[in-house]
Amino acid sequence: MLNAIVKPxxxxxxxxDEFDSQFVHQRVDQFAGQVARRLSGELTEDQFKPLRLMNGxxxxxxxxxxxxxxxxxxxxxxxxxxxxxxxxxxxxxxGHFTTRTNLQFNWIKLVDVPNILRELxxxxxxxxxxxxxxxxxxxxxxxxxxxxxxxxxxRPLAEILRQWSSLHPEFVFLARKFKIAVGACEKDRAAMLxxxxxxxxxxxxxGRVGYKVMAGGGMGRTPYIAHVMSEFVEREDxxxxxxxxxxxYNQDSRRDNIHKQRIKILVNTIGPEEMRRRVAREFEELKxxxxxxxxxxxxxxxxxxxxxxxxxxxxxxxxPDAGPDFANWVQTNxxxxxxxxxxxxxITLKTPGQVPGDATADQMDTIADLMDQFSLGEVxxxxxxxxxxxxxxxxxxxxxxxxxxxxxxxxxNAGLITDIIAxxxxxxxxxxxxxxxxxxxxxxxxxxxxxxxxxxGELKIKISGCINACGHHHAGHIxxxxxxxxxxxxxxxxxxxxxxxxxxxxxxxxPGFGEHEIGDAVERVVDVYLKARRPGERFLDTYRRIGMAxxxxxxxEKEAA
Amino acid sequence: MxxxxxxxxxxxxxxxxxxxxxxxxxxxxxxxxxxxxxxxxAATAEVPRNEFVAPYLFEVRDVNGKIVPVKERxxxxxxxxxVHPHTGKQAGxxxx
Lengths: 561, 96
Known about the structure:
The complex is a heterodimer. Chain A contains 17 helices and 21 strands. Chain A is α+β, with helices and mostly antiparallel strands. In chain A, strand 14 (378-381) and strand 15 (387-393) form a beta hairpin. Chain B has one domain (2-91). Chains A and B meet through helix 1, strand 5 and helix 13 of A and helix 2 of B.
């Protein structure tokens, strides 16, 4: 715990009204009854499985896994402390932040789940929309409400979409899961174009704020970049337009082959033009009915929850000098804030050797203290499995850094080669073919030298343990896909992907490398980049300029020798 | 060998005789397909008792006198996550 006495701050985030609270508590009671019926044998596993999945509960290799929703990645310090408590009481003292900005516990007992859900409901949390064929937890830019790059805070719209989709009777049993991201600036920090549907807040030529809607993106075994459905949807029409997209998907998607049931398959089978035509037809019908207009007063009511905090004025806009290690951390992990004297600080859960995205109960508690003392009680979870303190005074950065050092979370590597995304992989996941985490650890240790990391510059490695791509390997500048060859793990390299505003799908290099070969192969690929790059080029830029061949030749060179 | 997960907590189980044990080393090894299929059929018939879920067979081999699963997946299920050696059966963590 920090020495200073800190009153929990009230962050700018949505707070449950009576309806939300009642709804979540009713769901807890309902699921508690279902668990009891399963344990008594009244429900078979086949009957119970869809019910537990609707409540974020999976059966994995070693135990049950509970996935807790963190809507649009925003957590209060009170919620963070409750997660720490659950880790300590019901799990093995740690949790895992995911690429969907959720938190997973890997050692949960079925008999404990009702109590855990009750404890979550007390702090306005739940596991709804974290699994099953529904609209999943909605994600956004982790800098939302803090960056000066955005048109407006995207979280009010994300919250409205959460409410719209949570209980929507038409969308409870979709053909497959449906992932939505919301953004509000040109810079894409939420991998928006890899989503089933993405909404970008934009201004039209007249300066009016509205929404650009994209659909049909996705990862998995058939990756696609989303297509634009509409360049500009008026504010009051957004729910009707998104409902039109979902309705076309729900009506027209295949349901006979699990691998072909995502909206990306529909859009790319009928073509984006035909999809736009069908959506436009549904949209006109919904508009004609006039039942789905988003009232301005409702938008205002939700937006008020996210009102910008009262930032102090008159603060120095300079970052204090606190030594070279601190300066390195500032260089990579501190970003510009919209308020003078403030900054956004990224806590990478990626100190080389750590499990990407893992945090212990004690670490969570200390981060909650940091949130209260330095960031107005708020933290964000990013899809890159990091945490972000969105509103910190620049003068407090040295103190924050010192505390993060104690936590072993002060690695100055945000956006660098050791800031690796990795899914849980075969260490936990029932679907995985190969382990992801040990490969991430191995690579992070190999490239640990900070000077070398800076020499390499921005390079995003993303690792998945199977084709489902929870580790976003298609979107990695260097992606790694774990495969199973007769019970042995192999790793394919995928180059040239991007999950940012310049989104692209990585290209598979060729046959996989063994667990002990993949590190050398990545090193040879990085060496090609360092030799071939032109001034100012990132790895991705060089790859796009020179193509796969030189990287492939180098990667397999030593293997062939 | 035959394995399943326990219903109430998800812990990994191995078939031994007509019951289950918590460690691979204690489980029965079926020398041929017929005996393995018979064990699976017996376990499947017990599924309605709601004590375990999803029984299935997996292959093992003898490595210097030690029985080891052929597939990495079963090696990890038998021991625990390779990245957290303080958790799972490798750390002596068995539920009663």
